[in-house]
Amino acid sequence: MMHSVELTLQQQPEVLERVLRVARHRGFSIVKMNMNINEDGTVKLVFDVKSERVIELLTHQLNKLIDVIDCQVAVLPAAVATNTPILATAAQTATPTKNTVQA
Predict the structure, then answer these.
(1) By C-alpha distance, which of 98, 53, 50, 32 is closest to 71?
(2) Which of these ranges, 9-13, 43-47, 60-64, 82-86, has the smallest mean pLDDT?
(3) d(CA 7, CA 43)
(4) What stretch of H or E contains 29?
(5) What pLDDT shows up at residue 77?
(6) pTM of the predicted protein model
(7) Cα(87)–Cα(14) distance, rounded to whole angstroms?
(8) What does the H/E/C string look like for 33-72?
């Protein structure tokens, strides 16, 4: 199944390496990635992953990283793999962690 993960990160030299390592260790293949630096100094990283594993295996570990401010997941249906994602926050798909803020 395809998922799109959107992370807001603190800008650190090693932050991208940490995120990629977590994705690899959890068995997810990154098929597309885009990274931008925001005006407030944070980094927005959006990447599409493909795996038969449940996405919570990845989001739980990403939320544990100290540089992760926010994590959102969009499910990409197989027929619509790159067109219209259905957004769901990590807080909706997983149990709250230290980086998840609930309203």
Answers:
(1) 98
(2) 82-86
(3) 8
(4) strand 29-37
(5) 75
(6) 0.72
(7) 27
(8) EEEEECCCCEEEEEEEEECCCCCHHHHHHHHHCCCEEEEE
The pLDDT-based confidence of 78 (bands split at 50, 70, 90) is low
Residues 6+ apart with CB under 8 A from 82: 32, 48, 76
Confidence of residue 54 (pLDDT cuts 50, 70, 90): very high
Mean pLDDT across the chain, nearest whole number? 82
User: If DSSP codes are grouped into helix, strand and coil, which group holds residue 8?
Assistant: strand
Say how far residue 19 (Cα) sits from the centre of its chain.
8
Tell me the Cα Rg of the chain: 13
Query: H or E segment at 12?
Result: none
Within its chain, how far is the Cα of 78 from the centroid? 18
- C-alpha 75/C-alpha 73 separation (Å) is 7
CA gap 21, 4 in Å, rounded: 17
The whole-angstrom separation of Cα 9 and Cα 42 is: 6
